[in-house]
Amino acid sequence: MNSAITSCEHPNPLRCDGVISSHEGDQGSKKDGQLKSPSSSHMAYSILDIPPWYLCIFLGIQHFLTALGGLVAIPLILAKDLCLQHDPLTQSYLISTIFFVSGICTLLQVFLGIRLPILQGGTFAFLGPSLAMLSLPTWKCPAWTLNASQVNTSSPEFTEEWQKRIRELQGAVLVASCVQMLVGFSGLIGFLMRFIGPLTIAPTISLMALPLFDSAGDDAGIHWGIAATTIFLIVLFSQYLKNISVPVPIYGREKKSHTSKFYLFQIFPVGSRMVIVAAGFVLLLMGIFGKIGAAFATIPTPVIGGMFLVMFGVITAVGISNLQYVDLNSSRNLFIFGFSIFCGLAIPNWVNKNPERLRTGILQLDQVIQVLLTTGMFVGGFLGFLLDNTIPGSLEERGLLAWNQVQEESEETTKALEVYGLPWGISTRFCTSSCAQYLPFWPREGKVGVRQLSLCPGTQKRGPGAPQTPGCEKAPSAPPPPSVLLAPPTMGGTLST
């Protein structure tokens, strides 16, 4: 679900080839009707391009298959703590639900959200606090649910056991969502980003996956032969064969045939919004047909374990890759990262073994403390944030200069306003509102650390004689608040409000 950042020098974004440049290693281009290797700097279809309908469907399915592992993994990991390890039918319901909801979120983001070609799916950041919450004594599964011979999946008693845990998680997610909306609408994230650097992000992301090694090892250990075969096939197709081209006969309109190179085991470099729309509808269809979710629920556990070993390893490496911006020859930085990672593993482990040491006499407070201290992401991220902002160090040493420089380079996104403008003229209508100008989250031209995006074309600087956009020429000027900032490319390149 990596997003792409526009980088078009052409005056008309609609006509720009390669308006999107993705992360290195995931790029490609078109030349002489052939898809080149991703080492090129252009994409086959940019964000505003509309491929033929059959290609949209094909490439949408490709995006779905790419995100499939991460989508299926979340309900399968939660199944054990929801007391559903012996209920594959309910597991299939959860898988179908995450497909359907991911499709809805994808369409909302493409049409009304950040409007970038991003496939929305579940996040592993959700797993840490969820598992910590379900590990509380109140929510531990009864012993009889662990015995397959005693579980009657159709009984009201069993249904209530897993549904009350689902309700608890749903309530926590709803409250967290309200806090997230408050942070976004208040513009607080613009202020916080001044203090959040690579040494905070690296341990936070890495500790999403590191505490899950136990679950991955247990699943793979049921049959290491099957797990090893799964790992071998994933590595073979995704790493060794990704640059191997296969000659494919192509027939043109004039009935002339020729051979074209086709990278069979490689993701097509496509950044078109319409392709993501197709992927969103594919997710909706996958969620509607329950048999598809049931098929994924019957995947053998060792296969899932092998997939987890690869997936969690990559997530851990993505977190560590944020350290490319900091000075790794600095003992300060090595101490902060190493201490944060180690405490993010050691403290939750100790709290799980000694929960009685943290009892204050107030049940609700005890639960909050235990959930926070058993979430490795929180412990490591908080320590990284605290130490990085209190231990003396230069901006260059902390990696903030290099990080901000990458963000400054992505200011070219303001040249393609059509990419980010809301549909149906919403941007133009609301840009002229005097109230909207003072909303902390409302994007406009400005520079607070990095340039903010403007959804109102009329507020952009124009040359002499250039026509003004109707409805925007009288927009009142206001000091730009620290609101919508371009997030660091290591976090996917999406927009944060």
Automatic annotation (TrEMBL):
Source organism: Bos mutus grunniens (Wild yak)
Transmembrane segments annotated in the record for this chain: 52-79, 91-112, 172-201, 221-241, 262-289, 295-321, 333-351, 371-391
A GO-annotated cellular component: plasma membrane
Cross-referenced InterPro entries: NCS2, Xan_ur_permease
Membrane topology, record value: Multi-pass membrane protein
UniProt-recorded name of the protein: Solute carrier family 23 member 2
Family assignment from sequence similarity: Belongs to the nucleobase:cation symporter-2 (NCS2) (TC 2.A.40) family.
Keyword Nucleotide-binding: no
GO molecular function, one term: transmembrane transporter activity
Top-level taxon of the source organism: Eukaryota
